């Protein structure tokens, strides 16, 4: 898809961890063609590899004397990112790391986040994600009075990935800020499908939290975040309404949510859709495999789907 990334981010990884825990005792970002799961790797709350939407949303345009050819740089690097040419986008954006242009800084943080998700070296992954966090924090520091949709969105995504690195306790603690900045991003630009998706993952994750995990969180935080599958569904459906079939992960989450709500026919339909969507990004590959496993358990003959 294009535009990533909770992503993705956003909590998809966290959600996948919860799904895994549930299977043992008791699912995560670019977007169509990202979220690395990110986010989190594959499933940061937001995990958003979030190449979900080709649209980057409205943005504040800094004074032209600050960054020559700003519009051209934005257009070119967004196109590279949306086609998952991360290194190419990075080569252009890294030149602006010492500047104060919010719109270039959050885009630089975005591609560094993707670079983190792509590397298999744990230390390098962590170092890159912390670098991305520092840069997106700088982007927020210099946003204008109109606010920056992308800065808030990617701050939320990257913050969740950092929480994932730091552990479950940190991730839950940071989840309040994650939700706040996602909602702020939607206040600025309510037509971005990936942000609706990521916030949907946030709601799904806490609705899906096992009872024993919720008790542990309550002991630590007093009043941990909570939500419902109905809230999650509203966000996933909104994302799909804005941009149909934009992100295989959103399709899969629709299936998961319908499944939790006891709507088995709809769940089956969306597992099939998720399986059949194109595989372009790391997120797509993970979702393709997860949908395949779900369909096999449900007795679906995969060969009939791919005729």
UniProtKB/TrEMBL annotation:
It is found in: Cytoplasm, Cytoskeleton. One of its GO terms (cellular component) is mitochondrion. Its main location: cytoplasm. GO terms for molecular function: microtubule binding. It holds the Pfam family RMD1-3. Keywords: Cytoplasm, Cytoskeleton, Repeat, TPR repeat. InterPro entries: RMD1-3_a_helical_rpt, TPR-like_helical_dom_sf. PANTHER family: REGULATOR OF MICROTUBULE DYNAMICS PROTEIN (PTHR16056), REGULATOR OF MICROTUBULE DYNAMICS PROTEIN 1 (PTHR16056:SF16). Interacts with microtubules. This is Regulator of microtubule dynamics protein 1. It comes from Steinernema carpocapsae (Entomopathogenic nematode).
